[in-house]
Amino acid sequence: MSRLTTLKPRLKAIDTRRLKTLNSEELRVTGSARVGLKRRIYTRDDGCCCMCKRFVELRDSELDHRIALQFGGGNDESNLWTLCVECHAGKTARETSTRQPDREALKHDVPAGEGLPVTIV
Ligand SMILES: [Zn+2]
């Protein structure tokens, strides 16, 4: 029975470091899809910042999640709006310091827009 040898285990432990969890960054819309989306939301918002209501040029406007992804906000258009650079910076700073959705932002609504599909829940 000298030929009997121990078989090497064929199953390896899974290296969990290689398993990526789906985090908020991966939900982010990027690239050309984002450019088109930004323009569409900008048009819906009549080219105005949704917080201070000032008119902003498209190139100066910022597409923002009213409720940030990290706080459970979605990528649907009812959670997306146009902000000016100043409002966006202020909102982000408040969210970072409180680690909560920005209360100032929640006082403002996302414009319903015309001709956009309305989701009835
Ligand atoms: Zn603004």
Automatic annotation (TrEMBL):
Gene Ontology molecular-function annotations? endonuclease activity; nucleic acid binding; zinc ion binding
Highest taxon in the source lineage: Bacteria
Q: Which residues form the HNH domain?
A: 49-94
Family matches, as InterPro entries: HNH, HNH_nuc
> What name goes with this protein?
HNH nuclease
Question: Which species expresses this protein natively?
Answer: Erwinia typographi
Q: Highest lineage ranks of the organism?
A: Bacteria, Pseudomonadati, Pseudomonadota, Gammaproteobacteria, Enterobacterales
